[in-house]
Amino acid sequence: EVQLAQSGAEVKKPGEPLKISCKGLGYSFSNYWIAWVRRMPGKGLEWMGIIFPADSDTRYSPSFQGQVTMSADKSISTAYLQWGSLKASDTAMYYCARLGKSGFGGDYWGQGTLVTVSS
Amino acid sequence: QSALTQPASVSGSPGQSITISCTGTSSDVGGYNYVSWYQQHPGKAPKLLISEVSNRPSGVSNRFSGSKSGNTASLTISGLQADDEADYYCSSYTSSSTLVFGGGTKLTVL
Prior knowledge:
Largest interface: A-B, 25 and 29 residues
Strand content of chain A: over 45%
Mean pLDDT of chain B: 96
Oligomer: heterodimer
């Protein structure tokens, strides 16, 4: 069974760094794009970017370029999303999703990681 | 890139059909057959309903259907049920090799 298991909720202070994870189970992790999606409180979904674990080809959506870093370790089937210095406006639910073999549809999703940034 | 344009809300009675539109540009919706639709219930992860404009993944009810004409894609839900009440999002691949969502549509089943 395909699953994406995300790391647990985080509570951080502004300026702190953070790295959250998404572990793929039950499929060939290297060969499917992984996407990260943000949902801020009361707002809609936003694609942050996508990464291909086999070669770490990464494409950021313009709004997130330079704001976050996506990476992947194919040896442990895990993708990461990290911030160097969090802001209060980074408070959101973050989802990872596997993109299917054709059409860039997110066919499997993680359960979400809630990140709260507050002083 | 700007978000795709969806109506903020739609509503319908049980058994009726509704259609949600998703308007983009020739650089996204109109340029590729890579339009997807998602359903998100409160507190849950999104669920893929439609990929590649009109393909239903295994397990998705045939009450959900998708289409596209020019720069506008559409999701039709027939035989509305109470459990269809949720937020719906369209998504498209773009000429920048990224993805973009619509703003989301809240469906109310009356």
